[in-house]
Design a protein that fits this description.
The complex is a heterotrimer. By secondary structure, chain A is mainly alpha-helical. Helices cover 71% and strands 1% of the residues of chain A. Chain A has one domain: ABC transporter involved in vitamin B12 uptake, BtuC. Chain A starts with a helix and ends in a 9-residue tail after the last helix. The C terminus of chain A is likely disordered. The longest helix of chain B has 30 residues. Chain B contains 11 helices and 2 strands; from the N terminus they run H-H-H-H-E-E-H-H-H-H-H-H-H. Classes of the chains: A mainly alpha, B mainly alpha, C alpha/beta. The interface between A and B is large, with 47 and 44 residues.
Chain lengths: 291, 290, 258
């Protein structure tokens, strides 16, 4: 695989992860610092099945998604009942716990990690994954479920008085975000060929969150382009990891201070917005979560 | 054996308590989750290391200096990043992300400068141990506990005996009313961050002496966050309890089960406590105003 | 319209204590279908607490609440909402940042019942249901003079329009019972008259039972069939505006004469 293809694949995987963060934090307003652990669940499930049972990569990735959803469901039942920062706290706890479990478990290679996963992810796999994810997230956002998540984010009490079950809405968003992270994890496993517990720590989750923030937490377009831009930038600055992190954090700090809603705010790309006549008809220019 | 672990746990817990109190005073006054506290913890350890290794200053002096630096950096972070956000009245999430980013930035700088090596101070802070019956307590642990108690006493003296302490307490009850009373919020918040930074620095410097000096030391902030929440929101005593509790759970699960799995046990138990008592151990349940 | 019961909303012996404070003290009243009932009383009389209890936001300490024959005591907020109750709040609770149309559609969440799979795959069923709801919402916005603002951000509207939007959101799913908490607060005299006309229109066109908390006696006099007076968590008097107005206890409570 050439350098450009590997950059391309990395960018694609990051875009997918960013979509998951967008669903849980941007749409639903929950600050999850445990997204990296759902990536880990997807990656380890896929990697384990591929190395141990030599299953077809596609099946492995699908299994990773399913396990991710199951885990998010079980984690969600207690933690989504917690409010405000307590939810973030629970996700931090979960991330630490999973890392500890992966580190001690012999089955998953302990602290060395899983090695020998076949490297088969090609650029078109990632393109497929990105297109599917973006399309599904867009559908979710525009559907009544997405609207329910938005209303839970803005005013939970009012949402309840309209008959919206806030817990169910959060659970749906959490599971969808985890499924997306699981997909990204599967692609990651088949891209890197090895996995270790320290690839999925809380600081890694915080990087995901920051990445989405860069493009604009409340814009799906922003999440896609922000993730792409930052990842490309970091690949170009291919010095040490620490340097990358310094550049990354500095850029984000400037963004927060200068343009707090991220580069895109709530603006969304749509085909209508390219056409001035339809734009006038739908009043799209006026914004408002960009639907 | 068990008493031994209990003593170790309390000593470690006292450090967590320091970090948690530093986290809690900022939370009380601004209602924000201040992850940048982690940066001051790591700086507390690293500045002491750099000063004592490269400038060959005595270790004790280096620690005192590094604690001061951590406090000042904490106030500086507030001034540069959080102050502009506060002035614009931005929602919570921006503080959340900004403090997280600052934390990442400082950690990255430390990794860059230190080449990500795990090191230790040029000499041990204090040698030997005290023996009482079957219990062996390293003098370092006693020192840590002593410093923690002294620092907390000093903090409460500042909070309850000085004018600025009164202003801090006023602001944590109702910052708007405090402003109307002529209290300068910038000064109060700056001081709070300074105090938090000092506590973080002390914790970091001593944890560095107990374990090692490594860049991820700042991740202790997540334990501080937990201690603060589990102890009870808005209560400094609660944060101390929370810190001790985490220290104990961690030490005991380390000793009796498995060191690698102990974070899973610790954090699992903490979530269970939060589910059973969402308001924390010492906190009062605050109902949402409708 | 429901003809199965004579009373639409029945509150029996309802009490709520907050620690030592008795906010609502053995309240009893019932509301017939299509009635407009006003609840008045001095500040702190427990009017809003009654609304919070009825709409399931907080559970009562004791007592019983029946909505159209169904017991809704201690049911959670969304369950009560699903049985056909909507409310507005004293202060505005719009979904800020969403457009006016999105606000109305999110209030009509329960009227759509396509599944999550439909949503993720953007199925034909979703499209037809969404279209129907959008049409319904636009029609309603049109009737309440908000159609021109459908794509504006809800929090960018002037205060009076935001209040009107709150009411539109509350009635979009044609609830059986509508609770309005101080709808006229903060409105100017012209807007208040518009509001009264609007409430009349809702009752007549949509067969709704309406409970209204209001400090403006003009509104109470103008639209209520029945008035309940509360003081210190207790029901002081009940009856038509004329009866209540001349009730000695009510006069004493309002004028503070012993």
């Amino acid at each position: 695989m050439s350098f450009y293809e590997s950059v391309f694949v990395n960018v694609g995987i990051m875009i997918i992860i960013a979509q998951g963060v967008y669903v849980i934090t941007g749409l639903t307003g929950l600050f999850s610092l445990g997204q990296s652990s759902f990536v880990a669940v997807g990656a380890y499930t896929a990697g384990f099945l591929a190395t141990r049972f030599e299953m077809h990569p596609l099946l492995c990735i699908l299994a990773g998604i399913v396990v991710s959803i199951l885990v998010s469901f079980i984690i969600g039942i207690p933690s989504l009942r917690l409010r405000h920062v307590y939810f973030s706290l629970a996700t931090i706890a979960y991330c630490y716990a999973l890392q500890a479990i992966l580190t001690v478990s012999e089955t998953f290679g302990g602290s060395i990690g899983l090695v020998g996963v076949p490297v088969v992810t090609r650029w078109w796999h990632v393109v497929l994954g990105v297109v599917a994810t973006v399309w599904i997230v867009r559908n979710f956002k525009l559907s009544r479920f997405g609207l329910a998540c938005l209303s839970v984010r803005t005013d939970e009490l009012a949402a309840r008085t309209y008959g919206i079950q806030t817990f169910v809405s959060k659970q749906i968003a959490f599971s969808l975000a985890s499924a997306i992270s699981g997909l990204a994890g599967g692609l990651l496993a088949f891209n890197l060929g090895y996995l270790s517990p320290d690839m999925f720590t809380v600081p890694v989750s915080s990087e995901y969150l920051i990445m989405v923030f860069f493009g604009g937490l409340y814009s799906q377009t922003g999440a896609v382009l922000g993730a792409a831009a930052l990842t490309v930038l970091m690949e170009l600055l291919r010095t040490t990891a620490a340097w990358r992190m310094i550049a990354y954090s500095t850029i984000i700090l400037i963004i927060i201070l200068v343009r707090p809603n991220g580069l895109f705010g709530t603006w969304e790309f749509s085909l209508d917005s390219l056409n001035p006549r339809r734009r006038a008809k739908h009043g799209l220019a006026k914004g408002g979560e960009g639907v | 054996m068990f008493v031994q672990q209990l003593v170790n746990g309390i000593s470690l817990g006292s450090m967590y308590a320091l970090l948690a109190v530093g986290f809690a005073i900022v939370y009380n006054i601004l209602g924000i989750v201040n992850f940048s506290h982690g940066a001051t913890i790591a700086l507390g350890a690293y500045c002491a290391y750099w000063l004592s290794t490269y400038l060959r200053l005595p270790l004790e002096l280096s620690m005192v200096l590094s604690v001061t630096i951590a406090g000042l950096v904490s106030a500086l972070i507030e001034r540069i990043t959080l102050h502009p956000l506060r002035r614009k009245g931005q929602p919570q999430i921006f503080f959340f992300i900004a403090s997280l980013t600052v934390f990442n930035l400082v950690t990255a700088i430390i990794i860059y400068v230190s080449k990500a090596n795990i090191t230790s101070y040029p000499r041990t802070l204090i040698y030997g141990s005290i023996r009482m019956a079957n219990v062996i307590v390293p003098k370092l642990d006693v020192l840590m506990l002593g410093i923690a108690v002294l620092s907390l006493l000093a903090l409460s003296a500042v909070l309850y005996k000085t004018k600025i302490g009164l202003a801090i307490r006023c602001c944590s009850y109702d910052s708007r009313a405090a402003q109307l009373m002529g209290i300068n919020p910038d000064l109060v918040i700056g001081t709070t961050f300074l105090l938090a930074g000092l506590l973080g620095g002390i914790g970091g410097a001593l944890l560095g002496a107990k374990y090692a000096v490594y860049p991820e030391l700042g991740d202790m902030v997540y334990r501080a966050f937990f201690a603060c929440m589990v102890g009870g929101l808005g209560s400094l005593t609660g944060a101390i309890f929370g810190g001790l509790l985490i220290g104990l759970i961690e030490t005991i699960s380390n000793a009796y089960i498995n060191a690698a799995i102990s974070p899973a046990i610790t954090f699992g138990l903490l979530v269970v406590i939060l589910l059973v008592r969402p308001q924390g151990i010492a906190g009062k349940l605050v109902e949402d105003k409708i | 319209m429901n003809t199965s019961t004579d009373t639409m909303l029945e509150v029996k012996d309802l009490s709520k204590q907050f620690g030592g404070l008795v906010a609502v003290d053995h309240m009893c009243f019932s509301v017939d279908p299509q009635q407009i009932v006003g609840i008045i009383g001095p500040n702190g009389a427990g009017k809003t607490t009654v609304f919070n209890l009825i709409s399931g936001i907080i559970p009562p300490t004791s007592g019983k609440i029946l909505l159209d024959g169904n017991c809704i005591t201690s049911q959670s907020c969304h369950q009560v909402a699903m049985l056909g109750m909507r409310r507005t709040f004293q202060e505005i609770h719009l979904f800020r940042g969403l457009t006016v149309l999105q606000n109305v559609k999110s209030a009509a969440y329960r009227q759509m019942d396509y599944s999550l799979v439909d949503a993720l795959l953007w199925s034909r069923r979703l499209r037809s249901e969404e279209r129907a709801i959008t049409e319904l919402a636009m029609e309603l916005l049109d009737r309440f003079d908000l159609a021109g603002t459908a794509h504006e951000r809800a929090d960018s509207l002037p205060y009076g329009m935001q209040k009107r939007l709150e009411i539109v959101k509350a009635i979009v799913s044609s609830p059986k019972v509508l609770l309005l908490d101080e709808p006229a607060a903060g409105l100017n005299p012209g807007e208040t008259i518009e509001l009264m006309e609007l409430i009349h229109k809702i009752r007549e066109e949509m067969d709704m039972t309406i409970l209204i908390i209001e400090h403006s006696m003009e509104v109470i006099e103008g639209i209520c069939d029945n008035v309940i007076v509360m003081n210190f968590g207790k029901k002081l008097a009940e009856g038509s505006w004329e009866e209540v107005q001349t009730n000695e206890e009510v006069i004493r409570c309002y004028l503070g004469v012993d």
